[in-house]
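ugh ok fine here u go
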Amino acid sequence: MKFLSLLLYITTTIAYSASNILIGNDQNLQSIIKTPGKFTFVDFYADWCRHCKKLSPTIDQLSELFSDVPEVQIVKINGDKEGKKMGRKYVEIGYPTLLFFYDDGRKVEFDGIRDLTSLSNFIQQLSGIRLEDKPEVVEEDVVIDDEPGNKLVEFTPENFNAKVKSSRFAVASFGASWCKYCKELDPALEQLANDVFARDDILIGHLVIDQYEDHTLDEKYDIQNLPGILFFQNGDLENPLVYKGGKNFKSLLDQINKFTGYNRDYEGNLAANAGVIDEATQLIKEGGDITELYENLDKIPGETIEYYKKLVGAKEYIPSELSRVEDILTNDIDKLNGLTIDSLTKRANILRSLL
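structure:
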């Protein structure tokens, strides 16, 4: 009995860290992932990986963030030691590799900016779980009042500021009920909001100024010609970009893509250059000293730069990895959600740019 108690104590000590993180290994990872009713986020790391060491405190913070959410478990596994077998199974290019698992074994790889907010949002989006301290009023502000499922926002003088601040990007069209050009623009705005950019962090809406006695907004932004269109970023209400292009679907689509970097086509699919960072592509193609290459990549902004880092020194794997990703997008696309399709499409674009 003493031996059994000691064994149970050791097993528990190995399985859990002091920060609510589960410690995975070759023997227990599969059972952890397939725990019924659990969503599992796994950090595959290696002791020699400097990016892994830099990321480790963030993973600790992430586990604390979800410590009161029993449905979500955060796991670390050393792919260079006790997790070698699992590393070979799941790490396709390099460390760190961050994977989200459903309890049936399906997985989605995280390839965005490795900060606490991005990782938390990733888990919340895939699990459908919202942290309690996430302001609920923001979600209500984004919901459209008119038609179920319609994402075109009806701005009012009272809700304008809150709605614009609720999204990373916002497009606001100022019009009037008597303006035929404004009415002609509405179908384009609806298509952009509901079809093209429906999955993105952008809010598109219109304000019919003659429906309200309060003209503070059109006076503040000096709206002279209707429809007048403003682009906002990061909730900055004081410095919008005044749109001066054509008041039609194609012109607006091109300008929104340029403003946001989303690179969507008219159906909402990602364009062939989405995710590609020309400077990063050129650096990896040129090669050179690995340490210097990582340092140069660290200086380049962009949400896909972390994926580029995984491709350093992996030139021989690029064709096979591209083939694998293309196969998923061709044969399994009906099984994927929009977030995963976008992620895989960006990877495929990056891989093609490196051939």
